């Protein structure tokens, strides 16, 4: 639902497809993980251009195929993960270096602004809007982090102090990206089965969570970063909804009174008492409807390996889930893998339904704007006991994407169903909140105060359009819903 650099998606998905055919499950997962953050460009033309992509595909496909076969074998050892991007053993990373050099601008304050600064901390704010040197693309790779960050060695050296603030993180990104393509064995993508009912999950942080969920010991920082990058999606949802959630009504617990009301309703359904159901006639019980989680503006998260989403259901062993991915980009460039079905009277929106992934998980994907489906009453009726909206980095307040949410947000408020939202950075999150408040004003109740997400991705990502801009998946989380008015009877008031 927001602009993105679709050339990545295309390249990424082709690689995924190639690996799925050629490689093992592990390398398949690893390549899935190689998905980059959705980059939001301020420039025109970097947005959705599906048709343009189609034209280049056949030639690229052949190229990708060759690349995949050469990347399938281990090419990097753990002590040899650092490579300047342009000299990387991975052709994909070399191409990325070329892309950065073609698109990103030198942050040195002697240059003129190439765009409006996004916020006061944006390095672009140090430049003057007129005069100075013309904007120049980056071409010099910092020897310490290996990322193209300046137009020349002079500018890099001159502005070294400000680069130093992010150099270590950039180096970590460099090594993590090479690690993913190293072809090593990835035990961190081996997921545990159903939780034993007697064993409590501790959701204080990633360590306690992974330990109590019986994950294979992940004692290496890098493996932890790679693992959390995928798990952040299901676990962020689970950590808010679960009765053992670390977000509480206590002081500084971030949950509001309205939040507690809404979550209590959901938890009533998510943690039902044992009902004595069994396989025999005696054990027959009416099954409650599945918990519906609508993931709007879905993009990368809709193509996560299903094992990752199954982890959500393992946190709530007694209920079934129906995940509904909605958004024009929810199948972006995956048409070769999942051809979109025809739109027929019985399936008017061409939903892709993955029926029983497990006995407690079903996934449907709608390549469509949510507001269209809402207007058609497609998911109606909504039930605050069984429904929840999830918006992963929606960019509600981002100048390039907020217009796409304009129609959707009032509809979400109307349902009175909780809406959970994440952001890439504090700034990204606060901009979203400000936009919502400005757009719908008093019509919303805050359910959860904004703050850092305990289950954010520990891996940092780089915006290829601007290497100064680093962020991580689901950095922050907050929640709101449509304002509920207490009903009062007229005669009672008198
Ligand atoms: Zn420069
Ligand atoms: Zn550096």
**Which regions have little confidence, pLDDT < 50, spanning 5+ residues?**
1-72
Shape category: globular
Biggest beta-sheet profile: 8 strands, mixed
What structural class is derived from the secondary structure elements? alpha/beta
Name the average pLDDT. 83
Number of helices: 15
**DSSP strand count:** 12
Rg, please? 23 Å
- What's the architecture of the domain at 196-274 and 287-482, going by CATH? 3-Layer(aba) Sandwich
Beta content comes to: 5-15%
Could you state the order of secondary-structure elements as H and E? HHHHEEHHHHHEHEEEHEHHEHEEEEH
Strand order of the largest sheet: 5-6-4-3-7-8-12-9
CATH class designation of the domain at 196-274 and 287-482: Alpha Beta
What ligands does this structure carry?
Answer: zinc ion
State the helical fraction: 25-40%
CATH topology of the domain at 196-274 and 287-482: Rossmann fold
Distance between the termini: 49 Å
Per-chain topology:
Elements: H1 6-22, H2 25-33, H3 50-71, H4 91-103, E1 140-141, E2 148-150, H5 153-158, H6 160-180, H7 206-212, H8 221-241, H9 257-270, E3 291-296, H10 306-314, E4 321-326, E5 352-358, E6 361-366, H11 370-375, E7 387-391, H12 402-405, H13 408-415, E8 419-423, H14 426-440, E9 444-452, E10 460-463, E11 466-472, E12 476-482, H15 490-493
Parallel strand pairs: 3-4, 3-7, 4-6, 7-8
Antiparallel strand pairs: 1-2, 5-6, 8-12, 9-12, 10-11
Bound molecules: zinc ion (ZN) (2 copies).
The site of one zinc ion has 8 residues, from loops.
Region (Disordered): 107-131
Protein name: Protein MSS51, mitochondrial
GO biological process, one term: mitochondrial respiratory chain complex IV assembly
């Amino acid at each position: 639902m927001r602009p993105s650099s679709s050339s990545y998606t295309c390249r990424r998905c082709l690689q995924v497809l190639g690996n799925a055919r050629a490689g093992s499950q592990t390398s398949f997962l690893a390549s899935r993980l190689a998905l980059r953050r959705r980059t939001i460009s301020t420039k025109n033309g970097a947005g959705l251009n599906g048709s343009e992509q189609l034209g280049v595909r056949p030639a690229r496909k052949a190229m990708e195929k060759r690349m995949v076969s050469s990347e399938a074998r281990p090419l990097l050892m753990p002590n040899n993960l650092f490579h300047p991007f342009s000299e990387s053993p991975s052709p994909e990373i070399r191409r990325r270096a070329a892309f950065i050099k073609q698109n990103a601008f030198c942050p040195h304050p002697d240059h003129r602004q190439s765009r409006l600064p996004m916020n006061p901390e944006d390095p672009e704010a140090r430049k003057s809007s007129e005069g100075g040197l013309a904007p120049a693309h980056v071409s010099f790779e910092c020897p310490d982090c290996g990322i193209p960050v300046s137009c020349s060695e002079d500018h890099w050296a001159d502005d070294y102090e400000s680069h130093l603030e992010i150099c270590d993180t950039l180096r970590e990104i460099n090594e993590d990206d090479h690690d993913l393509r190293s072809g090593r064995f990835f035990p961190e993508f081996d997921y545990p089965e159903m939780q034993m009912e007697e064993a409590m999950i501790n959701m204080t942080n990633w360590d306690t969570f992974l330990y109590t969920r019986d994950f294979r010991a992940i004692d290496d920082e890098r493996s932890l970063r790679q693992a959390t990058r995928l798990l952040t999606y299901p676990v962020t949802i689970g950590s808010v909804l679960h009765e053992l959630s670390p977000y509480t009504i206590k002081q500084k617990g971030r949950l509001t009174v309205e939040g507690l009301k809404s979550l209590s309703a959901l938890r009533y359904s998510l943690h039902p008492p044992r009902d004595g159901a069994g396989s025999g006639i005696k054990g027959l019980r009416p099954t409650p409807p599945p918990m519906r989680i609508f993931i709007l503006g879905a993009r990368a998260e809709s193509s996560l390996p299903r094992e990752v989403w199954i982890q959500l259901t393992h946190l709530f062993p007694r209920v079934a889930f129906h995940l509904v991915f909605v958004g024009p980009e929810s199948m972006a460039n995956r048409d070769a893998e999942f051809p979109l079905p025809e739109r027929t009277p019985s399936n008017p929106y061409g939903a892709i339904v993955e029926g029983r992934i497990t006995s407690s998980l079903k996934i449907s994907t709608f390549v469509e704007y949510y507001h269209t489906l809402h207007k058609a009453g497609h998911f109606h009726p909504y039930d605050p006991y069984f429904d929840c909206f999830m918006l992963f980095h929606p960019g509600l307040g981002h100048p390039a994407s907020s217009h796409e949410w304009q129609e959707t947000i009032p509809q979400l408020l109307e349902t009175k169903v909780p809406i959970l939202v994440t952001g890439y950075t504090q700034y990204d999150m606060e901009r979203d909140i400000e936009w919502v408040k400005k757009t719908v004003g008093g019509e919303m109740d805050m359910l959860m105060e904004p703050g850092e997400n305990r289950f954010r991705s520990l891996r940092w990502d780089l915006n290829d359009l601007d290497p100064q801009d680093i962020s991580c998946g689901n950095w922050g989380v907050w929640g709101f819903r449509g304002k509920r008015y207490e009903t009062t009877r007229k005669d009672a008031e008198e």
